[in-house]
Design brief:
One of its GO terms (molecular function) is oxidoreductase activity. This protein is α/β, with parallel strands linked by helices and 261 residues long. 52% of the residues lie in helices and 12% in strands. It is built from 8 helices and 7 strands; from the N terminus they run βαββαβαβαβααβαα. Strands 3-2-1-4-5-6-7 form a 7-stranded parallel β-sheet, sandwiched between helices. The protein starts with a strand and ends with a helix. The structure holds nicotinamide-adenine-dinucleotide.
């Protein structure tokens, strides 16, 4: 039985992961933005990933109540995107603060404990966008690529301490993620909402595959076929990948300019 902390656990992938961890008999601390647990279910702590104080409190909670932690799942995140000349710098700041620095803060908070334990597993939710970079999504692609880079760095750095690192890179799946879109580029926001809400995949589909990767301590967890295919195409058929990206850019440009009117 493992002791697991999940951020962004009130919705979507976080909630689906918690349900699966609990079903398998693990101890879970769910965390999210709200003061209280939305469903009153699992043990809950408010943890805004932007707050170093909240992170310190989470470490203290794990030490006091569990005497340590086995798996830290840095999952909380928001959706952003848009054309480089339309999306605002405030949006960049917001997504860097949550999606990238939120993960950095989580790792910094728990690594001293993991080193002391000489055990632990860090699981970061990035995205397929951290591996392949479609046009009109520069802020999201950039922070998710940052999460992939951070994860790989730590996987090597923490190996001597018996600490493993995994990074999950799913393609679009159905959650409440689109509700976090507040961008100035509303045409691109509408496209992202559609991709999330029309995806055939559920959060539970993704959670099942991510959990399997966690158990196998796989570094790169690519939990669905579209993400796996895109990553393979980029690595082994680069001209085809570039052509696909250019096609997406041309279509997105038409759509955006149609909407901008
Ligand atoms: N849904 C997709 O298509 C998709 C694809 C690839 C990657 N992801 C990633 O999966 C992760 C989970 O997203 P989801 O799709 O389940 O979305 P979601 O909106 O359903 O859940 C995200 C959760 O994170 C929480 N959150 C947001 N800001 C926070 C903060 N500052 N501190 C703590 N919690 C915060 C929200 O309250 C929410 O409960 C994100 O990192 C997202 O980028 C999602």
């Amino acid at each position: 039985m493992s002791r697991v902390l999940v951020t962004g656990a009130a919705s979507g992938l976080g909630a689906a992961l918690v349900a699966r961890f609990v079903a398998e008999g693990h101890q879970v601390l769910s965390t999210d933005l709200a003061e209280d647990s939305p469903d009153g279910g699992t043990t809950y702590l408010k943890l805004d990933v932007r707050s170093p104080d909240d992170w310190d409190a989470a470490v203290a909670w794990c030490e006091q109540n569990w005497g340590g932690l086995d798996i830290l799942v840095n999952n909380a995140g928001i959706a952003t995107g848009g054309r480089i000349d339309v999306e605002t710098l405030d949006e960049w700041d917001r997504v860097v603060d949550i999606n990238l620095m939120g993960v950095v803060r989580g790792c910094r908070a728990f690594v001293p404990l993991f080193k002391q334990q000489r055990s632990g597993q860090i699981v970061n939710t990035a995205s397929a966008a951290g591996l392949v970079h479609p046009p009109m999504m520069s802020s999201y692609n950039t922070v998710k690529a940052g999460v992939v880079a951070l994860s790989e760095t730590l996987s090597h750095e923490l190996h001597p301490y018996g600490v493993s690192v995994s990074v999950a890179c799913p393609s679009f799946f159905r959650t409440n993620l689109a509700d976090s879109i507040r961008g100035a580029d509303s045409a691109m926001g509408a496209t992202a909402r559609q991709l999330i809400e029309k995806s055939p995949r559920t959060a539970d589909d993704i959670a099942a595959a991510v959990l399997d990767g966690i158990k196998k301590k796989r570094f790169l967890i690519i939990p669905d076929r579209p993400a796996a295919l895109a990553w393979r195409t980029k690595r082994f058929a680069r001209p085809l990948y570039d052509r696909q990206m250019r096609k997406i850019a041309a279509r997105a440009r038409q759509r955006a300019e149609g909407k901008d009117g």
